[in-house]
Amino acid sequence: MGILNLTKEHNITLLEGDGIGPEISKSVIKIIEAANVKINWEKCLAGNNAFLKYGEVLPDETLQSIKKNKIVLKAPITTPIGEGFSSVNVQLRRYFDLFANVRPSKNLPNIKTPFDNVDLVIIRENTEDIYAGIENQIDENTIHGIKLITKKGSERICDYAFQYAIKNNRKEVAVVTKANISKLADGLFLKCFRNIAKKYPEIKTREILVDNLCMQLVMKPSQFDVLVMPNLYGDIVSDLCAGLIGGLGVAYSANIGKYQNDNFAIFEAVHGSAPDIAGKNLANPTGLLRSAIEMLKYINENSAAEKIEKALFEVFKEGKILTPDLGGSHTTEEFTNEIIKKVKSL
Ligand code: NAI
Predict the structure, then answer these.
(1) Does residue 101 have its Cβ closer than 6 Å to ligand 1?
(2) Which protein residue has the closest C-alpha to ligand 1 atom 31?
(3) Which pTM was predicted?
């Protein structure tokens, strides 16, 4: 009788993106391979490269692959400049109703920032608020921009925040609003949060106004754990938090949604396609790698996720082999190989 092979093979759609996308994707794939996770990557086109081949930025072939695999690792994509193109990010968000934008912020060793104990996660509602795009011209000099907040949208994002907290061993979820001023819209979000919180008595809760939050974040960010908030506050505060850990180059994210009753997740770095350094072996793959670590946790490959994170942290701690954007003088390939060496030694 043969030995039973319990290693699960995962099917994941890979969007290698444009600019530095293919280089940093290659690096991440090699590191995941070194951690012995079996992934069948289905490479698909999206963005500029798809536009050149198919005349559209999100071809049907790519959509079909995502529908089948339900999990995507996405490198940055150049948005072609021209009339009538909505970005791939916006199209994917709408198509798969990616209602939760998850933006963890955790310090890396040796990256100089004002604080060295940041470890928080922003859960941003991704579909409503002013991003619903409802604006009316009342008269020549007056515009009404509608802030759309619904019970359904608020409840599902608050519920997701609590579920995330439980799955990731977090202790507290804080809700962020401006409910003292936006009494109806933010008031509804807050009410939904309070209702949903009753389902999760094991998680501590906190309520904070967004202006106070911003001040607290730049004075004592270590006091925060998981934060859930409507779209606009989430957009602004998550970039503030990226700044707390060293900027967009090391920040990462996940977009979670539901399409025809199935869960969908797209993991991506926060930075763009960096055309100025594309093809030069200088790109820093950290943002995409940290997104991939979140992806590994999502598919329950926790020990590989921990191993890769530890290896990455060690490379930063030693500070000897880093890419130029981090103050180093090494190539993408050298940085990647150093992480692989550490992964294999753990
Ligand atoms: P960018 O983030 O691509 O570049 C800004 C600066 O940061 C550049 O100097 C670049 O060299 C540097 N940089 C960015 N990522 C880096 C990395 N991993 N390693 C080393 N250096 C890095 O922003 P930019 O130039 O405004 O946008 C370029 C393209 O990317 C545009 O077409 C834009 O639409 C697209 N974009 C795509 C995003 C996505 O797919 N999620 C997000 C943001 C922009």
Answers:
(1) no
(2) 78
(3) 0.91
